[in-house]
Every structure is written in structure tokens, then in C-alpha cells.
Amino acid sequence: MKYLFFALPLLSFVACGDADKSDDTAAAETDTGSAETETETETETETETETETDTNTDTNTDTEGPVEEGDNGLVGLWIDEEPQQTDACGVEEGVVRPVEIAVNLVTESSVEVEIISEEEDGEVPQLECSLEQDSSFSCPELNFLELHISDLEPDAPASLDATLSYTINLSGSFNGVSAMNGLLVTKLICVGGDCDVVATDMGTEFPCSIETQFSATLQASAE
Fold first, then answer.
1. CA triplet 136, 223, 184: central angle to 5 degrees?
2. What local confidence, expressed as pLDDT, does residue 162 receive?
3. Three-state SS across the chain?
4. Is the pLDDT of residue 126 over 90?
5. How far is 43 from 49, CA to CA, in rounded Å?
6. Tell me: the pLDDT tens digits for 4-60?
7. Alpha carbon distance 174, 181 (integer Å)
8. What's the pLDDT tens digit per position in 141-155?
9. pLDDT above 70 for 205
10. Nearest to 118 by CA among 221, 215, 212
11. How far apart are CA 186 and CA 208, in angstroms?
């Protein structure tokens, strides 16, 4: 009997010890599972975030850019030595001058030009023209010069009340880089009390125009 009473407390102590160990083991396993779950969650979150970032980056990348300025090989000096001219103003009296046009800038929808052959007193007409997908272009009319009739006709008296205004209009198209075909129109408008006298002397009526059909070739490219 003495051994029995002594053994019971000992067994209780052993049982309690085993229970504590089981609780500790279960807690450790729970902590390990939580740590593994947190690690997996963080890994999945980071992976998803990186995937979304890469996807967004790839989606937002532009594959097509604007046409760069000066592209298409059109920049340079274009000349037609023998254009076809109709002079309704009688200013140049059958003298046909070459058409010289400098293309300075080309964009996706515009072209900037200087009409070198229309230079007057160091001033060169500069036009910014719209450029279409079919390579045709058109330029708004430019009020270029105002001259007294005596500046145009040296024999005309300076006392005459007659001032001539020059406007220039240009339109045409590019045939690749081989040709620029177009129409150059110079219009003369007279303002002043003696315009009828000037018109009679010149054998014309105001307003009048000089129309020049041309087919120019590229002499020197800036590319």
C-alpha cells in the first residue's frame, strides 16, 4: 500500500509533464504552420505584384512613335529649271525664271518651305504647309510684299498713287523623293487712286496673277 500511494503522485507528475510537452509541441507546430502560411502569403503577394508591374509596364510601352522631323528624305533644295508659266500681269514679259524651293522641315502632318526663286530685296517667302497621307501639300496664302509701282517699274513716276501687294500661294505633291509637282501662284493687288493708269500701262487688270506649273527634282538632300 505504501508503494501504491507513492506511485500515484509520481504517475500524475509524469502525466502532467507529458501533457505539457504535448501542448508545447502543438504550439510549436501551430507557430511553424503560421510562419509557413505567412511566408507563402508574402511570396504569393510579391510574385503577383511583380507580375502586375511587369504586365503594366509591357502594356504601356509605345510601339509606334511620331514621324521624326526631317524624315522621308524630302529635306533639301528642289529646282525646276524650265517651269510652265502663265503671266496674266505682264510683269515678267515672257521671262520664265526657274522655280527653287527649299524644304526645311518635314513632320507627320506639315512641311515648311522657302520659295527661294521669289526672293525680293533679301526677303524670302516662308510657308508652313499641311501635309496629307497621300504626300500632297497645301499652303495658306501669304501676304509677302508691298511695293510702290516705281519700285517695280523704274520708269513709273514716284508721284503715282499706286501700291502693289504680292500674295503667294503654293500647292502640290511629292512623288517619293524623285519629284515635287505643284502650282505656284503669285497674285498682284493694286491699291491707290492711280491703279487704273498703272493697269493700262501694264496692259492688265488688277487683281492679276502669275501661275507657274513646275516639276522640281531634289538637288541636295539634308539627310
1. 35
2. 95
3. CHHHHHHHHHHHHHHHHHHHHHHHHHHHHHHHHHHHHHHHHHHHHHHHHHHHHHHHHHHCCCCCCCCCCCHHHCCEEEEECCCEEEECCCCCCCCCCCEEEEEEEECCCEEEEEEHHHCECCECCEEEEEECCCCEEECCCEEEEEEEHHHHCCCCCCCCCCEEEEEEEEEEEEECCCEEEEEEEEEEEEECCCHHHHHHHHCCCCCEEEEEEEEEEEEEECC
4. yes
5. 10
6. 333 333 333 333 344 444 444 444 444 444 444 444 444 444 444 444 444 444 434
7. 6
8. 999 989 898 887 888
9. yes
10. 212
11. 9
- Cell numbers placing 123: 526677303
Over 50: is that where the pLDDT of 171 sits?
Answer: yes
The residue to which cell 509677302 is assigned? 144
Place of cell 506649273: 213
Question: Amino acid identity, residue 191?
Answer: V
Sign for the CA dihedral angle at 80, 82, 86, 88 comes to: positive
Amino acid at 40: E
Query: Cα–Cα distance between 145 and 151 in angstroms, integer?
Result: 11
Q: What is the pLDDT of residues 89-110, one digit of tens each?
A: 887 766 788 999 999 999 999 9
